[in-house]
Amino acid sequence: MVKSFISFDSFITPTVIKFIYYVLLVVVAVSGVVQIVVALSMLGSSFIQALGMLIAAVVGTFLGIVFVRVGVEGVIAFFQIHDALVHGKTKSGGQRL
Fold first, then answer.
1. CA distance linking residue 40 with residue 48, whole number of Å
2. Could you read off the pLDDT of 4-13 as tens digits, one per residue?
3. pLDDT tens per residue, range 26-84
4. Distance in angstroms (rounded) separating the CA atoms of residues 10 and 46
5. Which residues pair with 96 in a beta bridge?
6. What is one Pfam family matched by this protein (predicted)?
7. Are 89 and 81 in contact (CB under 8 A)?
8. Which of 26, 31, 61, 62 has the most CB atoms lying inside 10 A of its own CB?
9. Cα–Cα distance between 19 and 75 in angstroms, integer?
């Protein structure tokens, strides 16, 4: 195990990508909650500014979740392409990819 880790014969990212995805989702969610709390705390001073921050926090949190998902899917696709090229998988017609 140590030999394959040092020699880069196998990749570690495909095995931990789901954990990384969940950690990033928690980071985005906590950031969104903090932004919403800050926006709600500003309601007393400036309603329009607080409303703008609240909308930005909700939209930003949603976009953060989408971007995390797209990024993780891109990493997974990269490793699937690598596996297909290295292992010589073929199409259904017998042609090489």
1. 11
2. 667 777 778 8
3. 999 999 999 999 999 998 888 999 999 999 999 999 999 999 999 999 999 998 888 88
4. 55
5. 90
6. DUF4282
7. no
8. 61
9. 13
